[in-house]
Amino acid sequence: MAGASIVGAYNTQFGSFVQKNRETGEIRDTRTIYQLMDEAIRGAVEDSGFAPEEIDAVWVGAFAPGLFTGQDHLGPYALEAFPEAFRFKPAQRVEGACASSSMAVLNAIYGIESGRYRTALVVGVEKMNLLKSTGVTHALAGASFWPSEGGTGMTFPGLFAEYAKGYRSRYGLGDEEFRRMLASAGALMYRNGVLNPLAHFGKGGPSDRSQLFTADAIMELPEEKNPMVADPLRLHDCSLVSDGAAALVIARTDIARARKEAVVEFAGIGHTTERLAIADRENMHELIAAKLAVAQAFGEAGVAAKDLKAVEVHDCFTVNQLLCTEALGLSKDGEAGRDYVAGRFSPGDACPVNLSGGLKAKGHPVGATGASMHVLLYKQMLGKPIGAARAAGVPEVTATLNVGGSAVTNSVTVLRRSR
Which top CATH class is 4-133+241-256? Predict the structure, then answer.
């Protein structure tokens, strides 16, 4: 079976690209979903060195563009980046909640491995800030099980607060001890994010201005600056509502090797799906389905956690950063929080976590998140990091762990650099 490799990548700036009139409530778009897509697609194709005409198919990952912007049927818009070269080529949108563009990546890999396509373009995008906070909450709630969760008023902070309470109870953690674990994970993301020129909370941003680079700095914030959102999760345990796009060009590995000095291959993939309602799961202290996806990807790639030299994990909430770290086997179950408190997983660690700043600081335009994870690791693996770099040198084996919904859609990829 022919393998697939990344040959080009691009990430737009992540942020809130609107102007809001506080007196009238009017919201004006300053960078549209169409502009974000165009920029990411053109940037990735240029980075690949492939001509637009050489792209065989397009997959667009976006969660809820219809609710966020009014534009459903978004896949065909990808053609507009290169209308003459892309016209009549297959293009479709893929949805998997916060893992939408990882689902797009997997579909592109399947298309290449089947032999139908030689190359593919994947773009992930979301434009979230045209809605007020109530509208964003409503749109995101559609990724939960509506009858018993979103439709009854349960929010995503509330859903992941159940994981936080389950984890705290399972491992007998005191409230302050657990809060320090979460704050330590968040502080690392803020430290990494301030080095990322594309991050929503980058240099000069709120986390930088307030110097939220230690657990103490976060824990000492007054209540009005770090209010409880869903006990025990506070504002600074939550990721950002962001606008942005990221894109990848993927090619059959033999073609990639013929065209590139260094190739980043998809060495292994894992895709599992958990039951949609949290009430139907055995426990709320571990990511059961994510662990299975990790086992699939590691088995296919022939690697173990000790082989990973950098990872991008889905820190939609700080508790999920802990859970993802354990799902990948980088920490023992129940120990990730202590590992973050001890200073592990920084750029100086053997396997840094979220050199990008993660969803917590880089930002979380939900449809773009999976693609962005791959873009940032790809650049790390070519020795061209965007922002923080691994102190021990260029990583040759990395992994992504992207989840959609309340850890329902789980995608893991193992990436390997070869010449």
Answer: alpha beta
